[in-house]
Specification:
Length: 338
């Protein structure tokens, strides 16, 4: 008999680590994790971890032969800045690996005669506003608006949202017998900020980098100008969003892709909050016009009313709680000497 598991890809990444901690709180959850990298030491007892490449089809086939997968949280991805540097590799990881996993989910659903749930984090990178004026004008963007991403990562995410919807509705639609479909659900995240980890390869990274640098007494040169503004969310809310969506009754869902957000801040507003907590922080602005243009193509705010309506989403951390009760105290403690 195969062991029934929840499968998390990209488990050593920022969202992966936080999700793993949360899912492991429920003793009944058997967790299978996968990443190119090992898990941090303190998380190693929480799951069966496979260190490997999602593009290794033999490895995936071996996993399917050993485990019956109930739910897939497919978090592995190359983020927006890194994907611009390695676009082909980004396409392989962000699209081709997703395609393989969707196929596995579909085959498993068919075998079990019950839908495998596929939870997919997308991103504000799926949007692409053409210029700053348009961004100023369209402040709160809905899911179906401005879907013309200007990054490889954004294109990958947008396409995989659609691929997931396709697999859940039409995959093998011409087959004699219609196989059971997968249960594909997706959230579009804003920039995420964790108190425990620092991201790498993203373009919203200036916010977490600024806070973590200040707490360590390191100078930080922000790569976007002071006015650049996008939505953000802290990691506990990101994990809550994934779990709330996963647990929502299917009949309440009116769509498959949902915006979720918490607060929007300009880079100067982030600096001001960081300075309030770390008055000696050395924060300067040295915009990198190319990375800044990516941030400028992302909306200043997103409309998450569909998630609020359909699965009772609302963030637990508004901007004040995010900084005063989560980010600042935990980050301060984390870098305390001794
Ligand atoms: C990135 O900057 O690429 C990510 C994202 C906004 O999805 N953090």
């Amino acid at each position: 008999m195969r062991k029934r598991v929840i499968f998390i890809t990209g488990a050593s990444g920022e969202v992966g680590q936080a999700l793993l901690k949360e899912l492991s709180q429920q003793a009944e959850n058997q967790l299978l994790t996968m990443d190119l990298h090992p898990l941090p030491l303190e998380l190693r007892s929480l799951s069966t971890h496979v260190e490997g490449d999602l593009l290794n089809l033999r490895l995936l086939a071996r996993l399917v032969s050993e485990y019956e997968i109930d739910v897939i949280y497919h978090l592995a991805a190359l983020l927006s800045t890194r994907a611009e540097i390695q676009p082909e590799e980004a396409h392989q990881v962000n699209v081709e690996a997703t395609l393989q996993l969707l196929k596995i989910a579909a085959e498993e659903s068919q075998w079990r005669k019950r839908a495998v749930q596929f939870i997919f984090p997308s991103s504000i990178a799926a949007y692409g506003l053409p210029d700053r004026e348009t961004k100023m004008h369209f402040q709160r963007v809905r899911e179906f608006e401005w879907n013309q991403p200007r990054t490889m990562y954004g294109c990958n995410k947008l396409y995989c949202e659609q691929l997931g919807s396709y697999f859940s509705r039409y995959y093998r639609q011409l087959a004699a017998e219609q196989p059971p479909t997968i249960d594909f659900r997706c959230v579009r995240f804003p920039g995420l900020i964790s108190a425990y980890t620092v991201p790498s390869g993203g373009t919203s990274d200036y916010a977490p980098e600024m806070i973590h640098a200040a707490a360590q007494g390191l100078p930080y040169a922000c790569f976007v100008r002071e006015e650049a503004r996008i939505p953000f969310m802290v990691m506990p809310d990101a994990v809550r969003a994934l779990l709330l969506l996963a647990h929502a009754p299917r009949e309440r869902l009116t769509r498959q892709v949902y915006n979720v957000t918490s607060f929007s801040l300009s880079a100067a507003q982030i600096r001001d909050r960081v300075l309030a907590a770390f008055p000696n922080a050395q924060i300067t602005f040295a915009p990198d016009v190319k990375r800044e243009a990516i941030v400028d193509s992302w909306p200043a705010d997103i409309d998450d009313s569909a998630a609020r309506m359909d699965w009772d989403w609302s963030p637990e951390y508004d901007v004040d709680r995010a900084f005063n009760e989560y980010l600042i105290p935990i980050i301060k403690q984390r870098y305390q000497p001794g």
